[in-house]
Specification:
Number of strands: 11
Largest sheet: 5 strands, parallel
Bound molecules: adenosine-5'-triphosphate
Shape: globular
Number of helices: 15
Order of helices and strands: HEHEHEHEEEHHHHEHEEHEHHEHHH
Structural class: alpha/beta
Strand content: 5-15%
Distance between the termini: 66 Å
Strand order of the largest sheet: 4-7-10-3-11
Length: 419
């Protein structure tokens, strides 16, 4: 028999772990204020595991609005990518992070829209329109293409990408207004900086037409770029933005594109309360009002350009007034009988009608099968398609994607962990 273990010392020795304090460990830092949000909102515009796709032309100022561009893929030139990034035109809900470089399909509706933009310059009158359609049909992407067109043609582009009415940004009353109006100083400062970044080259060439020396201290010969940069604190952001807008709406300036994503937000009562705790209608927020006045035609754009609002179909807000007005406008455009208000709906808002009554409605639904094939060929060339591409696969994905709703087709076709 093996000798009995008498003593603990006879047992095999355990090696004792030593916990030496390591010197070079970076302490885990809690995210600072706004860092989590910044990460969530970070836009990734390339994927190194996707194959580069060659032989695709760049978007160009002269060709974008031509009918020959319809149904083709285009690359967004690097410079425009930077400008669009400054304008916050790319959304995290879109699939940019799957491909090597940003490319877009020029669908028929986009080319039609761009040719209207082109015509507005000749007419010296802004196109006023609302982009509507099913969820994920490409409304925001069409807005992005309109912005690309405007940037390439050296227009000035302003974009309001986010909800201004949810109470997430500071607001303050404008003295002596009745009903009381409100500015959003922090948001306006950020918007001014974004406008400057995206439009720097154009703004630097434009001398001021009016005297803003009392507001800004700027001397004669200063440019619109100097004006945009003159606001260093949020307190001066709105007056400066308002001055910039006044300059841009003078005859002899370049055309302007004023774009907004999420129309339903600005056509309702906001989350803000006035000092007596009454709800504030979104149209009393001065920045929203500036957009609405341009969309309704109250503010003219004498150099042409466009005011474009995209609806965003998240079914959480049903918006009876906006739905009604858009359906009436659409019916009127098509020469159909104009729908009547629902007699039982009491929440119609006349201000929405006044804001939208002079707009054209442009509806985006599915792409054609030919357009779907072009897009899927690009997905295939990028190495991002789950299956082999033939005409059966195109027809199948087109049908699965609700008859060519691009976002739905992406869900059905693309290789990704996220979808
Ligand atoms: N012309 C296009 N070229 C390439 N991709 C497109 C095109 N149109 C739409 N997509 C893709 O389809 C998806 C949905 O597009 P987008 O975000 O524009 O939809 P939306 O209609 O604005 O959506 P929502 O209803 O949620 O506001 C995105 O991933 C987008 O990249």
């Amino acid at each position: 028999a093996p000798p009995a273990v008498k003593n603990r010392k006879d047992l095999p020795k355990k090696t004792k772990k030593t916990y030496k304090k390591k010197q070079n460990i970076v302490p885990v830092k809690k995210p600072g204020p706004g860092e989590r949000k910044a990460f969530r909102k970070r836009i990734q515009l390339s994927n190194n595991s996707a194959l580069p796709v060659t032989g695709i032309e760049n978007l160009e100022a002269q060709t974008m609005a031509k009918s020959e561009s319809s149904g083709k893929m285009f690359a967004i030139p690097d410079q425009v990518v930077d400008q669009l990034r400054a304008l916050e035109a790319f959304k995290t809900t879109q699939t940019w992070n799957l491909f090597r470089k940003p490319h877009v399909l020029m669908r028929k509706e986009t080319v039609e829209l761009l040719s209207k933009l082109e015509a507005s310059v000749e007419k010296k009158e802004a196109l006023k329109c609302v982009l509507t359609g099913s969820r994920l049909s490409g409304k925001s992407l069409t807005l992005l293409q309109a912005m690309s067109y405007a940037l390439l043609n050296e227009w000035v582009v302003i974009h309001i990408p986010e909800d201004l009415t949810n109470g997430n940004t500071e607001f303050s009353p404008v003295p002596d207004t009745e009903p009381m109006q409100f500015t959003q100083p922090v948001y306006c400062l950020k918007l001014l900086q974004n406008i400057y970044k995206a439009n720097k080259a154009v703004l630097e060439k434009l001398p001021l037409k009016k005297d803003w020396s009392r507001l800004t201290g700027l001397k004669q010969g200063a440019t619109l770029a100097d004006l945009a940069l003159s606001a260093k604190e949020s307190e001066f952001a709105w007056p400066t933005l308002s001055a910039l807008w006044t300059e841009l709406t003078q005859p002899g300036q370049p055309p302007v594109l004023f774009a907004l994503d999420g129309l339903a937000h600005i056509n309702k009562v906001s989350e803000y309360r006035d000092p007596s705790f009454n709800s504030v209608h979104a149209h009393e927020l001065v920045l929203v009002r500036t957009f609405i006045d341009a969309l309704s035609g109250k503010t003219k754009l004498p150099n042409g350009g466009a005011v474009i609002a995209a609806t965003s179909e998240n079914n959480t807000h049903y918006h009876p007034s906006q739905e009604l007005v858009l359906s009436q406008l659409e019916a009127g455009q098509a020469g159909r009988e104009v729908p009547k208000p629902n007699a039982y709906e009491r929440k119609y808002d006349d201000r929405v009608y006044d804001a939208l009554k002079n707009s054209q409605v442009i509806r985006l639904e599915g792409v054609s099968k030919d357009e779907a094939r072009v897009l899927m060929e690009y997905w295939g060339a990028s190495g991002m398609l789950r299956s082999v591409l033939d005409s059966r696969a195109v027809a199948e994905k087109w049908a699965l994607g609700g008859h060519g709703i691009v976002g739905e087709m992406e869900r059905a076709s693309l290789m990704t962990m996220r979808m």
